[in-house]
Amino acid sequence: MTNPPKRLLLFTAKLGYQTRSFEDAAHKLGVQLVYVTDRCHQLEDPWGDQAIAVHFETPEVAAYTVMEALRGQDVSGILALGDRPAAAAAYAARCLGVRYNHPAAVEACRSKLRMKEVFQDAGLSVPWFRSLPVDPPPEPVLLGISYPCVLKPLSLSASQGVVRANNPEEFLAAAARVRRLLKSPEILSTREANLDRMLVEGYIPGRELAVEALLTDGVLSILAIFDKPDPLEGPYFEETIYVTPSRLPESVQYAIEKCARDAARALGLSHGPIHAEFRINDEGVWPLEVAPRPIGGLCARALRFSLDGANELIGLEELLVRLALELPGWNSPRERIASGVMMLPVPKSGILEGVSGQDAARSIPGITELSITARLHDAIAAWPEGSSHLGFLFARGNTPERVELALRAAHEKFAPNDEPGELTFCLGRNVSLGQFSAFAEEKLLHLLFHDFLRVGIERIQPVLVHDHFRVLQPELPGVFRNALEDAFANLPPPRDAIQAWQFFVKFHAVYHARAGFHLFAGCRCWTTSLVGHAHLLARVLSTHLTATSWKFLVACCFSMPVRATLVVPVTGPRTQRKEHIEMVNTPTVGS
Fold it and tell me: Could you tell me the domains of the chain?
């Protein structure tokens, strides 16, 4: 009788870059991989992967959900990708009796303020710091702020919202920018803790670097020290190039390793991967952040390890699976060759219409891979508001210098294009008429999942409408159901669709299919807004929805912003009757 396969829980965001690599590693090792994700819990296993749907903003509840879903099944190990999943993983591991970091240690890593306090109490080098409320706007003169300083959110990652200020005027501008970011719908939808406060700390001059390491029962093992050759001096701090092995003197690398060990011990971390950031200058090593997770994005592909000294090379993902399940080979050394990755910077915010020069970039000697992860026709935000790169460029060579040169040479070969397309969606997705008519059910479902259902706000349930699939979850009252199916079949809503504190749904989309898209095919650019705001419904319900129970309000806004047509589809037995009401200079209904 054969033993059942080991079961590994992988806590990850539904859009995590690394999930496929972990799937491959688990399949190779004969491990059953169970996803724990923050996908919409209203949909019954849409991808057929039997993932457990949780809410990472409440890690204790997420752990309870996992326990209920497993129903006593054995779990051999736990891994987490990302800062938010790590907290839920810690609580679940404690319930399951699996080796992992203590929840209190992981919670300390989620707050930049708490982390600074821990480092200070442990005697590590930290600049001055203080926590300020987002509202009212802070007054630097009264606070005695010294310059230069850095303002940052307490809980966001990837340098999102991190801004340097060199004087009181820049401080006020930076504080306003951080405040706008923290109050944006996309950030509020995460329901992350501490969104009402920001951290201000002294700017640390010097070089920045990153450390990838493993903890086993509190013992730290360094996997790689990454140099960051580009100066990160502000005003924003978007990361670009990582190169390993480090070119720093051995004495400095030893000091970095000691600081990483002391920081992890001070936080109480004990088991699993860590990714840490440091600055070094003449005064020593300064810990910036320590996260109980592996390196983010696709950067893990820059690391390969020699399995048991043999010729077989394995990736970081397989190494972490072996560590979590206590399989041989988790302590394999990194390959001897130098390697590096460039996180492709976002030059400006806009709509990504294409990336030219990719073939030329791949042809540069030393370049091993170029992966554009940003999706075409998506809105891309530059730092400090942004947090996602255009893609990842990888190189290998005999020396770190050659790797860095290859990455820079390849980056010069291509550039993003943000020229508008033929048809522009109101919130930023550009789709040509030919592309739009060719949308298949699979593509549409992909757009719905990645652009609409990813946004979840309390008191709002995402609605998936697809006439071909006859899917409508959660089910709406009949007064809305037929109108939605008739007017918005084949609908790809854009990102940031749901606004806070609305009882129904507000989004912009193309008016398509049976709703009459063919009538407007000659229009260069137009959009449609479906407004289900409670305020609007309260005003119009008695006058516009009395004649028939199937009326619904759809506002169609054409290229000219001063004119609009209010279209009221009357859907009985699949009719296409419409009533038109002209409106001129009508202000948009607010929330």
Answer: 7-108 (3.40.50.20), 128-202 (3.30.1490.20), 337-417 (3.30.470.20), 433-584 (no CATH)
